[in-house]
Amino acid sequence: MSLPRLAARSFAVAFGASALVALGFSGGADAQAFAGFNANQPVNYAADRIELQDRQNRVVLSGNVVIDQGDLRLTAGRTTVAFTDTGTLQIQRIDATGGVTVNRGAEQAQGAVGVYDFNRKLIILSGGVGLRRGGDTLNGGRLTIDLNTGISSVDGRGSAPGAAGSSASSGRVTGTFSVPD
User: What is the mean pLDDT of each run of 10 residues along the chain (181 residues)?
Assistant: First the structure.
C-alpha cells in the first residue's frame, strides 16, 4: 500500500482508557468489502445439526455452521438465530460462538463470539478479534462492522491476555499496514 493511499484512507484514533480505530481498508475504486452490503438478501444456512425451537422463535444450528447472505459468509461452531413470525419468518439476530469468521470479498474478520443484528445492520465480534485484508491487519478485543457505512471499528478493551492476534493485556489495538517494495 502506498503512502498516498494510506493518507487517503479514512481512519481515526482516539486515545484514553482504550483505543478506538475506525478503518477503511482501502480507498478509491477499491471500496471496503463490507461497504455497500445489501443486508436484505436471503439468508442460507447449513450445519451438522439444526434444532427449531418454535415456541422461543429461534433456530439453533450446531457443528460446522455456514451462513451465507449474498457474498457475505459467517462460519462458527454454533449459532442461535432469533426470528419473528408474522406469517413469514424475519431474522432479527444471529448469535454465534466457536471460532466465528466473517468473510466478504478480500476481507476476513475473526473473533471468539459474534452477533449479527439484522435490524441495526451491525456485525459485532469479540474475543481476540482480527480484521485482515491482504497484508493489512487490525487486532483488538472487539470489532464492530457497520454494514450501512462500511466502517469497521476495533476497540482494545476485552483483549484477552495471550489471545491470538491481540495485544495481550494492554487493552490496545494493534495492526500492520503493507508498504510498497
Answer: 28 26 33 68 96 95 97 97 91 97 92 96 94 89 89 76 46 86 78
**What is the residue extent of each domain of the chain?**
3-176
Per DSSP, what are the bridge partners of residue 21? 13, 154
Three cell numbers written together for 87: 406469517
Residue 48 gets which letter from DSSP?
S
Residue labelled with grid coordinates 406469517: 87
- Buried b vs exposed e over 40-72: b needs ≥16 C-beta within 10 Å? eeebebebeeeeeeeeeebbbbbeebebbbeeb
Vertex 74, ends 69 and 75: CA angle to 5°?
A: 140
End-to-end CA distance of the chain: 9
Contact call for residues 159 and 140 (beta carbons, < 8 A):
yes
What's the pTM?
0.75
> What is the C-alpha separation between 61 and 78, in angstroms, rounded?
6
Q: Does domain 3-176 have CATH number 2.60.450.10?
A: yes
> Helices (DSSP H) in the chain: which residue ranges?
3-8
